[in-house]
Design brief:
The protein is an alpha+beta fold. It contains 11 helices and 12 strands. A hairpin with a 2-residue loop joins strand 9 and strand 10. The relative contact order is 0.06.
């Protein structure tokens, strides 16, 4: 299981978010240490000084003036002033960083016995009391001053959390937008490269995005055009040679047939066989120069293709046994696919002889078509080599009489359809050539 994403979009997002989280955490720490904390201390210092002013004013007033003063302070500043009468239902307030600063300031101003309290009736509700109380001694018995806890204890954590959350959301949106705009043309380039790898000719990719990506797209389009031009030139070259060889080969065959009675019959049959081999090689050249990608896709029954190829091979003298299973209709290029199956059957007939088994079915979520024979087979290390054009192994499969294009054509057609050609040893001896096609056509 991969814990770290593999796509460029998500990797960019994760890296930038990690960097942003670290920078936000450091920024919040700096704000707390050099901005928030000093401001809290300053506000507490000013508020304690204000409480001292209130205490001093109360000391100089008559009882009637104290009542009027307490009413005015309560209305204007939200500070409640009450006289100490017996035992008040109070308890010490909880400890927090801000309250500790407030306590220290109170003790420095009013003496070491100054303390911060909360009313017990507010504590019993289970929620944090909204009012804090301090006891101010005086010659008349002292006073209770009640005030909102926000005057002494402001918790900036909510603001910090909101700041961090909004910053993260903005960063996620910005990062996703940038990475998506960068990833979209790269994804298009990857899809186009995959289509070229399957032998298709994709449309030029859009030249969009940052300058580096535009340069890459331009170079890719130029490369695709050069590849198509090289393919066209190669096809024209091979087709021209193949066409030019047809005429002298036809004259030679006619002359060989006219030698009947003047040369040894066995020699004449050998010459005719050699001419047939040369014609077969020319046919392979022509097949190899065809662009299967130009053939449109259509709904194809793999079993119908297998039956048609088996009939053709049977007419050519092969013994083909069909083992067909139900296979869903696939979007394929019918002529290219039949050419693939024909090549596999010709190889099996040429190099193995005897009965050939042609089977279809479903395996591991893919459609498969298998051509099985009892010939000498192909050693697994040689399989990649023999799939290359113009490669042969006379004592195995490619045949001394061929041009070494049959397996190359079959492998190219398989790749064009997003599938693969497997050449595996058959149980009991022989070869099993399997065409594996995805049930869903690749993009």
């Amino acid at each position: 299981m991969r814990l770290f994403p593999t796509s460029l979009l998500w990797r960019t997002l994760v890296v930038l978010l990690a960097a942003l989280v670290l920078s936000q955490a450091f920024a919040l720490w700096l704000v707390s240490q050099y901005v928030t904390q000093p401001r809290i201390e300053q506000n507490i210092r000013l508020f304690v000084s204000h409480l001292k002013t209130i205490s001093a004013a109360l000391e100089t007033m008559t009882p009637q003036q104290q009542v009027a003063f307490a009413t005015r302070v309560g209305e204007q500043e939200g500070i409640r002033v009450t006289s100490v009468v017996g035992d008040e239902p109070m308890q010490l307030a909880h400890h927090s960083a801000a309250l500790e600063i407030f306590r220290e300031r109170m003790r420095a101003t009013f003496g070491p016995d100054a303390e911060v309290y909360v009313a017990k009736r507010e504590v019993s509700g289970g929620r944090a009391p909204k009012t804090l109380w301090v006891h101010l001694p005086s010659s008349s018995g002292g006073y209770w001053l009640g005030f909102p806890r926000t005057r002494a204890e402001r918790d900036p954590s909510t603001a910090f959390i909101l700041w961090g959350a909004v910053g993260l959301l903005i960063a996620i949106a910005a990062t996703f937008t940038i990475a998506w705009r960068l990833n979209r043309p790269l994804r298009a380039l990857g899809a186009a490269a995959a289509r070229i790898g399957r032998g298709q000719s994709p449309q030029p990719v859009a030249v969009t995005g940052p300058r580096e990506v535009r340069s890459l797209a331009t170079a890719f389009n130029e490369m695709g055009e050069r590849l198509q031009q090289n393919e066209r030139e190669r096809a024209t070259f091979l087709a021209g040679i193949s066409h030019d060889l047809r005429t002298p080969l036809s004259r030679l065959r006619l002359e060989v047939e006219m030698l009947e009675g003047r040369v040894d019959p066995e020699t004449q049959r050998g010459m005719v066989s050699d001419l047939d081999d040369m014609n077969a090689i020319i046919d392979q050249f022509i097949d190899f120069t065809r662009s299967e990608a130009a053939e449109p896709l259509s709904s194809v029954d793999l079993n119908d293709v297998a039956r048609a190829s088996a009939e053709g091979a049977t007419r050519a003298g092969a013994q083909v046994e069909l083992r067909l299973e139900d296979v869903p209709q696939l979007e394929l290029r019918a002529l290219a696919l039949k050419r693939l199956v024909d090549n596999l059957l010709v190889n099996a007939q040429r190099h193995a002889g005897g009965p050939i088994e042609l089977a279809t079915g479903i395996r591991d979520g893919n459609a498969v078509l298998c051509v099985r024979d009892r010939g000498p087979g192909i050693p697994p290390p040689l399989v990649p080599h023999l799939k290359q054009p113009f490669t042969r192994r006379d004592d195995a499969r490619s045949g001394a009489s061929g041009a070494g294009l049959g397996l190359a054509i079959a492998d190219r057609v398989a790749s064009l359809h997003g599938g693969r050609l497997e050449l595996l040893p058959r149980a009991g001896g022989g070869l099993e050539a399997t065409l594996v096609l995805p049930l869903r056509r690749p993009a």
